[in-house]
Amino acid sequence: MDTLQNKRIDELVDDNYIYASVLYYFGIEFYHYSEQTLEQVCQKKGLNIHAVVNQLEKQPSCDNQVEVADFPIDLIIEYLKHSHYVFIKQKLPFINNVIQNLEIDTSEFQLISKDLKFIFPLFVEDFIHHIYQEEDTLFNYIALLDQYKKGKGNVSRLYFEMEKHSLSRFASEHEEHDDEMLGIRQITKEYEITDKTPLHLKVIYSELQSLEQELITHARVENDILFPKALILEKQVSNMLQAKVKYN
To answer: Which stretches in the chain have pLDDT values below 50?
Structure first.
């Protein structure tokens, strides 16, 4: 712990860019306290140095992804909704905050800074709209199918929704959103880092790359797990409805 607490904030973040987001959730914006040690900042803010260091020492792992392939469809939807919540309430606000506070002195990076400050809020707005639309339409529709198969739900409402929606159309439209960060990759030249790249921008690139990987994983769960299960469910419910009509 002594090593971490005696390091300057900019040194900590330079060692591991992920530290920037950890510090942020303790109310420490790294670009405002770059010359101070972690211990000095914690004393100033009244933070428990042990708690902060413990969080910093928890190394992120790519092995902690939840394996959802064998989950029932209602739990897959809850998993995806939780991911949406993390994106909206944690990940996106942090990245946007870091971008909007980016101050670049060198002309080489000023255009990138200007473009990111303009483009990222538009990306966030479009992304959040897509998420809410997905939850209100796709997830609700699949939930209705699942409830009916379990012997619950309103048959009239279900029939109306099945006439209105098509999972194959949902799947086709969903693929159009699979490369949402293409424009940001182009602005940043694929998150290119050189010897001249400022630390602040390195953190932004690291967070953007992390976000993109999480979005790829999220899309895989939807495309490769949710949609195939939902298409089978939709067919099963359709057969159940046809049988019900036949014998009535």
So the answer is: 1, 61-65
| Residue 57 burial by Cβ neighbours in a 10 Å radius (0-12, 13-18, 19+) | exposed
The CA–CA distances, whole Å, from 237 to 142, 144, 153, 170, 202 equal: 11, 10, 12, 17, 50
Q: Which two tokens stand for residue 107?
A: 């002309």
Phi/psi at 8 (nearest 5 deg)? -70, 155
Instruction: Write the DSSP symbol of residue 8.
Output: B
Rounded Cα distance between 188 and 183, Å, is 9
Measured CA to CA, the distance from residue 248 to residue 246 in angstroms comes to 6
Is 138 strand, coil or helix?
Answer: helix
Q: What is the pLDDT of residue 61?
A: 42
Q: How far is CA 91 from the centre of its chain?
A: 6
Q: What pLDDT is stored for residue 165 in this prediction?
A: 83
Instruction: Return d(Cα 120, Cα 212) in angstroms, integer.
Output: 13
pTM for this predicted structure: 0.84
